[in-house]
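Researcher: I'd like a structural prediction for the single chain below. Treat it as a standalone chain; there are no partners to consider.
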Amino acid sequence: MTARRRLAGIGLAAVMVVGASGCLQQPGGGGEGGVGGVVADNAQPDGDSTVTILGAFGGAEQEAFEASLAAFEDESGIDIEYTADSDFTTTIKQKVNSGDAPDIGFFPQPGGLLELAGQDKIQAIDTFLDYDKLDETLVPGFLESARLNGRVYGAPMRMAIKSVVWYPKKAWDEAGYPKEFATYQELMDFSQQLVDDGQTPWCMGWESEAATGWVGTDWLEEMVLRVAGPDVYDQWVTHKIPFNDPAIVESLDIFGDLAKNPDLVYGGVRGVLNTPFSEAGLPSFDNPPKCWMERQGNFVTGFYPEEVQANLDEEVGQFVFPPYEGGYEGTPVLGGGDIAALFNGNDEDAQAVMEFLTSDQFGAEWAQAGGWLSPHATFDASNYPDETTRTVAEIAANASVFRYDASDVMPKSVGSGTFWTEMVKWLNGESSEDATTAIEDSWPTS
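Model: Treating it as a single chain, here is the predicted structure.
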């Protein structure tokens, strides 16, 4: 019995296999295969009720992931074999080039996915998923990160959100500070009020050994999304406009008004560059706080003191990083996630697994264990273990648009190379125009 018949027979609502008559209205999609109309096919056997997956996460995350698969495996009869590889980006290319690709790969960065999709090694999702239904339930804009030449080659199975401002809840509430801000300008006015009261508003740390500077790239990405908007952001990421386009320079200048002002940032430039990103928010939990706010991803709570982590809902508050007045009118969110891609377009079992993994029914057990966010706005938020996580998920669900971290999409020599190093030079005094021009000059020509 095929996977389609097995799943239909047991009525798995989460798995919706789309037949040849399915309505797939992806722009530029439809039909078979990928960029060249070729069906992606690996060397794994088809229809053997076994699906192999390669991903980057292991340990407790792997255990939680596998717990989220147990009921599906029992009901479908499909055995899912997951392999963790911390060097996924390199390993997946080696396996594909040697003819040993898994059935499914989880890409932590879309750049590698798009590279392999351009080689017809990955199946376009509109050939086996209900694209429109998927797009309706996901946080808006998520699928754009896996689009190439009008086709989408992957769908997210988890997400991370970076557009969150964290603060020490008890001290914040005692001071009577606002719980939300309508605009970035309003947030900056509040920051100046803190300065006038003898306080330091912002906690910030960029030190990350060889990766020092990535926190700064996130800040610039946040500002480009808000000041210039997602359309310009997309053009910037894909190099349809130069890195030193005036819109990017303007966004960096606006961030510079904050980052380069020692009154606004704890420790000033020297403190930012010498403080590990994992320790940046710790002074906010001093009594009294040495700084009050940190813009950082949802993972940051894992670096907080044990007593704070043990009671997040009472110790930590958060609000969405607000829009920029005069810029993009909506509320965008910046983030990332693991994108599932299919290497075996002929295997119905692998297709069925993809449909489950990319649905809003996947991940309840992982969510309950903590540390996981569904990319679906329709995911049952009661599965999250605390109100802090539910609030972050709500921030994502209410976003006007999601965009993937730009440095993870840009060529590696830029995204994890000159973009990092030039942000450090910029913070040390280099002008926005000079920094962005240096990055533009480093962009690979092929």
